[in-house]
Amino acid sequence: MVISIIVLGLIAGIVTGAGAVISILIGNITPKILSVSLGFASGVMIGISTLGLIPASLKLGNTYICIVGFVIGALFLFLVDITMPHIHKAETGGNQYTKMGYFIALGIALHNLPEGIAIGATNEVSRQMGMMTAITIGIHNIAEGLCVAMPLCMGNVRRGRTILITTMTGLSTLLGTWMGMIFGQISSLFIALALSFAAGAMIYISSDELIPQSHSTHSEFANVGIIIGFIISLFLS
Questions:
Q1: What is the pLDDT of residue 2?
Q2: Residues 133, 216 contacting (CB under 8 angstroms)
Q3: 113 contacts: CB under 8 Å, gap ≥ 6
Q4: Hey, is 119 helix, strand or coil?
């Protein structure tokens, strides 16, 4: 069982590379497509957090544990935000999209850690829940891969390098899966804390990074992406 969930965590992470392949196959990436994909990823993240992770955290723990984990998750990315350059701080110019892709990759790599924790932690509750969490995160990681790869493609980064960078952003999911398993074996309260931590991190990066950037290129298409992403997460949850 340990090996199987580790493998699932690995697969859920590396499928971000599939997003890069899709991005390359699309070819001509317009600002509208970029807005839809960024909005879609944020809609999925918010949906998974509010419809899946937070309710599960409340069920396994309590309101206070959920709030503490949520705040710590958001605070974690806030500290990253003020110490490292992010999307909205990128300079404009010929390499604007290349910088955007690198910054998105950094943010997604960081927030894939708590996503992995969610996989490992929910697996300690039940194997079925762990598998469904891994599948859900894997599906939305493909969308995240699109978000990383599209601006890199628009910045004329080589295809092989784009796929490599995008795939590597998902490897932190594997580390998070292992950490989640450790937390889950200690206490169900640690699972609840890990789930709400993941939710706080995902909602922060959606609000701070993905939604503002999606609206800066094309607001209407961004809204379409957010709505579609949220609806899909509703079905997955």
A1: 60
A2: no
A3: 172, 173, 175, 176, 179
A4: helix
Tokens 């997604």, residue located: 108
User: How many residues are there in the chain?
Assistant: 237
Q: Would you say the pTM of this structure is higher than 0.90? A: no
Q: Which of 95, 128, 111, 220 is nearest to 170 (CA)?
A: 111
d(C-alpha 166, C-alpha 145), whole Å: 6
Strand positions, DSSP E, the chain: none
Degrees (nearest 5) of the Cα angle 8, 226, 131?
15
State the pLDDT at residue 66.
94
Q: Which range among 83-97, 132-146, 215-229 has the greatest average pLDDT?
A: 215-229
Is there a contact between 119 and 133 (Cβ–Cβ < 8 Å)?
yes
Q: Are 176 and 119 in contact (CB under 8 A)?
A: yes
Nearest-CA neighbor of 210 among 153, 150, 134? Answer: 150
Take residue 145 and report the two structure tokens written for it.
Answer: 């891969």
- In angstroms, the CA 73 to CA 50 distance is 14
Instruction: Provide mean pLDDT across the span 166-175.
Output: 87
Does the structure show a pLDDT above 50 at 91?
no
Q: What mean pLDDT is predicted for residues 207-228?
A: 83
Closest CA to 57 of 67, 44, 47: 67
Calculate mean pLDDT across residues 122-144.
75
Burial 102-141 (b: 16+ CB within 10 A, else e): bbbbbbbbbbbbbbbbbbbbbbbbeeebbbbbbebbbbbb
